[in-house]
Amino acid sequence: MVYCRTWIKNNYLHSKPLSLTILLSLSNNPIQISLRENSNTQYDFLDLLVFYCISGYLKAGDYLIVDNWAGHQATDTLYIIEKLLTEYGVALIFLPAYSPELNLAELIFNYIKMGVQAIDLFLFGLEY
């Protein structure tokens, strides 16, 4: 499983800033997408992991690969995250710093952002 999130600016969707989270799998598991307003903290990451574990999206034998966003390594939640994932048999792996080419979700984010920008340009004449 690869976990990744991005921050969508105000002018992209003409609304409050949004946090987009994508959980990808190299197996037959469905892609999980979470879109939240004003939500971009280590506590939101922890909440999502609890949901993914309880719902069975993350299960024993899975590897959760995350980038080096500060929220993934925050000292006040990292211990809880490690305990939670250990309890469910999920290994936590951090990508090397500055290596978006290793993060599959980054490719999807780029497509989504390009699509939103194209829609904004076509409908509203907005350029980024």
UniProtKB/TrEMBL annotation:
GO molecular function, one term: nucleic acid binding
Pfam families: DDE_3
InterPro entries referenced in this protein's UniProt entry, alphabetically: RNaseH_sf, Tc1-like_DDE_dom
Source superkingdom: Eukaryota
Tc1-like transposase DDE domain: residues covered: 26-117
Protein name, UniProt field: Tc1-like transposase DDE domain-containing protein
